[in-house]
Amino acid sequence: MQNIIDWISSWMVSQCDGDWEHEYGIKIETLDNPGWLIKIDLTDTELENWDFDGGLVEKNDDDWYTYKVEDKCFTGVGDLFKLEFLLGKFKELVESNGGYEPGC
Fold first, then answer.
1. SS3 content of the chain, % helix, strand, coil (to 5)
2. CB-based contacts of 79: which residues, under 8 Å, 6+ apart?
3. Distance CA 91, CA 9 (A)
4. Mind telling me which InterPro entries this protein's record contains (predicted)?
5. Which residue blocks in 1-104 are alpha helix, DSSP H?
6. In angstroms, how far apart are the furthest CA atoms of the chain?
7. pLDDT digit string (tens) for 16-30?
8. How far is CA 39 from CA 42, 59, 60, in A?
9. Which of 9, 67, 87, 104 sits a CA distance of 20 to 30 A from 27?
């Protein structure tokens, strides 16, 4: 089973066409509450017309996340233990919508 860092790296490589990577990409940042913010630009990919809202899941102040796709961007936000989880949610969305499979 491929780990999520290898998978997201492979997905990124599959988008690079000499132009896309110069304007778009993946950003992973920290938040001050504290938490993670992931933004994955879907412009000029097979996934750019998605629209999805996963809603906010908040078990308590230290256990929460949300993710969505709007305006050609996947955005995932969550507590400090949700980075791998949020990248996994992006992977699930991509694979369930036929947007990418490693080795294709």
1. 30, 35, 35
2. 34, 35, 36, 62, 63, 64, 65
3. 11
4. Imm53
5. 4-15, 20-23, 83-96
6. 44
7. 988 899 999 999 999
8. 9, 23, 24
9. 104
Q: What is the distance between the alpha carbons of residues 101 and 104, in angstroms, rounded to a whole number? A: 6
Q: Would you state the pLDDT for residue 46?
A: 83
79 dihedral zone (left: phi>0; alpha: psi -120 to 50; beta) = beta
Domain boundaries, the chain: 24-96
pLDDT digits (tens, 9 = 90+) for 50-91: 898 989 999 998 999 999 999 999 999 999 999 999 999 999
Q: Which residue has the tokens 């969305």?
A: 93
What is the reported pTM?
0.88
The count of residues in the chain is 104
